[in-house]
Amino acid sequence: MNIKINENFKNIKETYLFSDIAKRVNAYKAANPGADVIRLGIGDVTLPLAPAVVSAMTGAAAEMGSKETFRGYPPEYGHEFLREAVASHYSSMGVSVPSSSVFISDGAKSDIGNIVDILGDNEIIIPDPVYPVYVDSNLMSGHRITLVPGSSDNGFLPLPSSLKGTVSGAVIYICSPNNPTGAVYSAEGLTEWVSFALKTGSLIIFDAAYEAFITEDVPHTIYEIPGAGSCAIEVSSFSKFAGFTGTRCGWTIVPDGLEASGVKLSKLWARRQATKFNGVSYPVQRAAEAALSPEGLKQCRANIEYYRANASLIASLMRSKNIYFTGGTNSPYIWLRCPGNMSGWEFFDLLLNRYQIVGTPGEGFGESGNGYFRITSFGSREATEQACARLADL
Amino acid sequence: MNIKINENFKNIKETYLFSDIAKRVNAYKAANPGADVIRLGIGDVTLPLAPAVVSAMTGAAAEMGSKETFRGYPPEYGHEFLREAVASHYSSMGVSVPSSSVFISDGAKSDIGNIVDILGDNEIIIPDPVYPVYVDSNLMSGHRITLVPGSSDNGFLPLPSSLKGTVSGAVIYICSPNNPTGAVYSAEGLTEWVSFALKTGSLIIFDAAYEAFITEDVPHTIYEIPGAGSCAIEVSSFSKFAGFTGTRCGWTIVPDGLEASGVKLSKLWARRQATKFNGVSYPVQRAAEAALSPEGLKQCRANIEYYRANASLIASLMRSKNIYFTGGTNSPYIWLRCPGNMSGWEFFDLLLNRYQIVGTPGEGFGESGNGYFRITSFGSREATEQACARLADL
Lengths: 394, 394
What we know:
2 copies of one chain form a homodimer.
Chain A: H1 17-31, E1 38-39, H2 51-63, H3 80-92, E2 102-105, H4 108-114, E3 124-128, H5 132-140, E4 145-149, E5 171-175, H6 187-200, E6 203-207, E7 232-237, E8 250-253, E9 259-260, E10 263-264, H7 265-276, H8 282-291, H9 294-320, E11 325-327, E12 333-337, H10 344-355, E13 357-358, E14 360-361, E15 372-376, H11 381-390
Parallel strand pairs in A: 1-13, 3-4, 3-5, 5-6, 6-7
Antiparallel strand pairs in A: 2-8, 7-8, 9-10, 11-12, 12-15, 14-15
Helix pairs in contact in A: 2-8, 3-8, 4-5, 9-11
């Protein structure tokens, strides 16, 4: 064909991280058929959906089978019952978000990728290491990316003061609690970013997907920071909070106070969604609503507690071995410095061959991930305990 | 904020069609509180989901509540069971589509909107009147659009011979059976478009969302036309075929033979979806699979038959009144020329005020829709019969 393709796709690195991991694990298992390999690599939940959620979803699916209760096209921005449930969730965190600023979607990944549609060619500022979608979705649009390195010096929580040169009108991605590092910004840290955004006329895209894992006194939402309503979009998800990775529902908050070139961003996002999206499945929206009900919250939090106890076990082990790490307290992830100056892949091979444990090399999350390693707490308690026991002689 | 927005949004016309319709209907009902208004305007289904579909969806929702059967992140391109069910569906239509070319999504609208991501700045060719998403999604990317007018002269089935000037490497949108006109291309008509695309190195994006309504001997899929595998992407949906407007599932076929700038389009689309999409809800995919099972197909086809009988009633009335129309045979839509040279809005007011019937003015679908009107067959049998009875004196 003679058509022009989007040439920016040629600038996106092919990532073979998870297929490379699978290849090494498969080769090991082929050579060691009896080995009991424990997988603590993936960022996917394993506990089933909460009973209140399942009950709501099966009930809504049954409603779709009856003429009286059948539902056709959902509103593109979400059913009002769910937009209001999300708004109430923000109330319970002490911030006021009107339901009209809540846009329901099939997941945070879609929104983070699609938000690029409404923006022009701005400088993109992204802390590194990082969830690859921030980088790749901007590369697809040919945007210029500035990475802000995380390191043990800043506890993998880089601040705007580390940026060189003048910034004006940038788009800044912040994920807190962070994937992959598990590090979480304090109110002071987020205040620095919000002040910087306000001063430079920049937009923050705040990824709160891991909010439910917070235990300490740190912000659950960017809107706890004064001024964020004038500079920040927040994207969040039911995936980790309610185990919706296979059920698919998320939301994005676009406050009415966000304006650029004389246009409200909420109006642009509404238009983008009305044009290229047709809303979320009704049974899924009812399931999401149930996750935010008192009963659902209690059940979902019990699941989070389970993962958090796993994270504590791994964090304790790291402490006992004097291994530097972030996360494990407000996050399902433990991000550790590989012992003996090993690279992430060297440590991967060591864990697999000597201990039959699979994790994720930090290199997969960007250059600042070199020499680091991510272990997740989404395995079963037994598997996590056994992994810790095996690592006693690390 | 100093950030640049996507300035192309300023070129998209605000559409108030459906809100204008709602305003006029509400005003009428306020002035005539006892009036029994029949709504034949919307393109949304009204019959409940088929029992086989509901049973599969509730069963899968229950699976998500048990540790043994819980499912996490779905594959970004769809569960293999559904990709294979769609591939088999194509087999039953007599064309061979490997499951690896099937990309499952949350609906045709998403895919039609998002496909623009992988393409460069090409000439866009769109028959008019038209489903507005083709136009608006391309305006958002600043693409140059050439509309090909439909009219009673070409039966609202314009052919490439009506294009002026030289075309090279264009992107051509074709919807057949068409929304809003209900007109359907014959094999000869589609062959002209495919030959034109092959000759000019163009890409066809074929929207087959209304395929299930076909009764006559016309192509159900663009891949019935020789050569289409080298020039056409097909987008389709469970929305109209299985009543999934509120359940949300669709698919896109990107054949391996599509290549531009030395890159396979299937690879670009796979990359786009893996970056900005996380797959479709597991219970929804099981529901969609059930719609394609022998039992599901039988039940879904009974629903289509119900709508088709409604369409026949309206089409018979038009014939008896000697009103020119397209559709009604292979489509749930009847697209009629307004009597007495009325504009679509004049006819709208006449139908509402004299007959208490709501339809959609053709102006809402583009300039070539002026003086035309869309009536849908998605109402109940009783409502459709009553509407026809009221219109006996039209």
